[in-house]
Amino acid sequence: SEPFPLHKIKNKYNILYFKSTIAYMLAYAALEEATEVHLYGINQSGHIEYLWERPAVEYWIGVLKGQGAKVVSHDKESRLFGGRPSFGGRRLYGYEMGETRALRRSK
Questions:
Q1: Whole-angstrom Cα distance, residue 82 to residue 71?
Q2: pLDDT digits (tens, 9 = 90+) for 90-103
Q3: Count of alpha carbons within 13 Å of 61, Cβ hemisphere only?
Q4: Which residues partner with 73 through β-bridges?
Q5: CB atoms inside a 10 Å sphere around CB 27
Q6: CA 13 from centre of chain
Q7: Which of 54, 72, 88, 99 is the most exposed place for a label (fewest CB within 10 A)?
Q8: How many CB atoms lie within 10 A of CB 45?
């Protein structure tokens, strides 16, 4: 086994933002310059997961996307990307409707 490359991640991104194993995996994918990442079973819907772990997961997804990687979630019930009903669900701020409807209406 190899130690996790904390120093390389700190040097490249100037941050060590890890609240779960998932965040470590995504950061490693970013460091390795992955071009495509598929997420399975990462719902982040429990209270602790949603409040404590999810922000770091979404942060590293943002880093990956910023590097041009395609990130795909295969979980229909995922709470990533603001999907928790008590926080507005999948409604877009300012549109008061879901993404699909907002895109149709904005044509």
A1: 16
A2: 666 677 777 778 88
A3: 15
A4: 39
A5: 26
A6: 16
A7: 72
A8: 15
Report whether 54 contacts 44 (CB < 8 A): yes
What the block records as the tokens of 24 is 């470590």
Structure tokens at 34: 């992955």
CA proximity to 54, closest of 42, 71, 67, 41: 42
The reported pTM is 0.76
Phi and psi torsions of 7, nearest 5°:
-65, -40
Burial class of 80 by CB neighbour count within 10 A (0 to 12, 13 to 18, 19+):
buried
Q: Determine contact, residues 7/42, Cβ cutoff 8 Å.
A: no
Give residue for tokens 């979980």.
75
List, in sequence order, every beta strand (DSSP E) within 9-100: 36-39, 70-73, 91-92, 97-98
What's the token pair of residue 21? 């194993």
Query: What confidence tens digit (pLDDT) does each residue in 51-87 have?
Result: 788 889 889 999 999 999 998 887 765 656 555 444 4
Residue keyed to tokens 């970013």: 30
